Amino acid sequence: MRLGITGAPGAGKSTTIDALGSYLTGLGHKVAVLAVDPSSTRTGGSILGDKTRMARLASDPNAFIRPSPASGTLGGVAAKTRETMLVCEAAGYDVVMVETVGIGQSETAVADMTDFFLVMMLPGAGDELQGLKKGIVELADMIAVNKADGDNIQRANLAAADYRAALNILTPHSATWSPPVLTYSAQTGTGIAQLWSQVLAHKEKMTASGELAARRREQQVKWMWTMLEERLTARLRSDPAVRAKLKQAETAVAAGRLAPTLAVEEIAQLLGV
Ligand code: GDP
Fold it and tell me: Can you list the domains of the chain with their CATH numbers?
């Protein structure tokens, strides 16, 4: 099972992964946790940072937490995360969670490598919807409102109702699955089992309809293209003749002496494409 998890900083991703991961190892699963954001986009992406973020899971023999990558571009980190996911699966980890803080392009990268994309939200109805990024919600297989505990329960329910209404006006990306909206508490554990049962229900439905296999096929092909494009770009930037030409062309285009179309034509000729 490949599970993508996104949420704003402070939404409770670490607490949720710790709670859900421990729940799953309790059921006999082996759980791997990977992060796709280079640590510059998150707080304290060191080994110690990740271990203290998920204290219970970090000491669980049936869990593996890969430290957040210390550097690299999103593209590079995403490629490595994908490869690490495959290695983890080969090593017997049957649930892989890939976490992202959901800023910029990283959520698409995670949705493109997982079977189920969980979007975490916070209680606090009304104004929340303004921050609701349509792009992220469109990727969601489920929206889960965290921190539904103590004084927050009612606000969490209100937020959930708002998200349900918002989802109603979007066309679901699958004909067989309408993304549910749940409330839960990562801190108390209330709702964690229900959250997982939705992931399982999704898997069952998507397997039966053939959509899971189709999603993975499309992901493989997309991955191939991503790698190919990266290779081509690397080639473009490493060839000395092309590099010199690129520099010249950039200056000429910026100065308005050369049309971008012509510049591309000249560079393409050098590359023989
Ligand atoms: P992340 O930045 O998304 O990884 O968020 P964290 O897991 O670090 O949580 C941010 C803060 O919210 C921490 O102080 C947590 O203790 C708190 N928190 C996380 N989950 C819950 C919850 O279910 N209920 C409450 N009341 N607080 C929570």
Answer: 2-209 (3.40.50.300), 218-271 (1.10.287)
